[in-house]
Design brief:
Layout lengths: L3 H29 L12 E2 L2 E2 L10 H18 L1 H15 L15 H9 L14 H10 L5 H42 L8 H12 L1
Antiparallel strand pairs: 1-2
Length: 210
Amino acid sequence: MFDPILIAGFIALFVAIGGVFLAVNLLVGRLVRPRMPNSEKLEVYECGEPTIGSSFVQFDLRFYVVALLFIIFDVEVALFFPWATVFGKATQLADPAGVSVSADGQSLTPAVAGVYKELGLTKPVVPSFEPSPRQSAEIDSKRGEKSARQAESEWAVQKSGQMLARTAFVDMSAFYVILLVGFAYVWYRGDLDWVRAVADQRAKASEGEV
């Protein structure tokens, strides 16, 4: 366990170093940069065009709608990254070529234990799955020079990886379907259209009232 005081000290040190670095750069830049102001440099510059009128104007609400939709879907898509990590680790466990346990079948090798730790298990052990008679016969036919216990332990690790990969795939597929439904609803409402047909909406509203 990490000491909370030590962690707080590291955070404070990081913030202090960042603040000093920023202050030094601003101070040095202020001292060494040339200062030759003129009327053109003091003008407001925006997108290469001279400004016209006051900056306190009302923006089109479509800017805010599009920005909110982007934030919503962008944040949801970001959830795919941890899922991809879990799915990749699970498929790594499910791969027979990458799974290995000790000769007695009682403990995991450091490589396999490391994969389990990356998935969140603090003390990984060999999964406790009991193969069926048909699965036992299949394991025995493929074990080669390995002991029966070692072959069954490797099969249990592979099965745990397959179950985790299948669960992760189903969960993320359901999440993706919900995301597509929301996107289709937003598209159907016309929220993705920059110019909405207000006349058509009023006509539909009047037809509904009739």
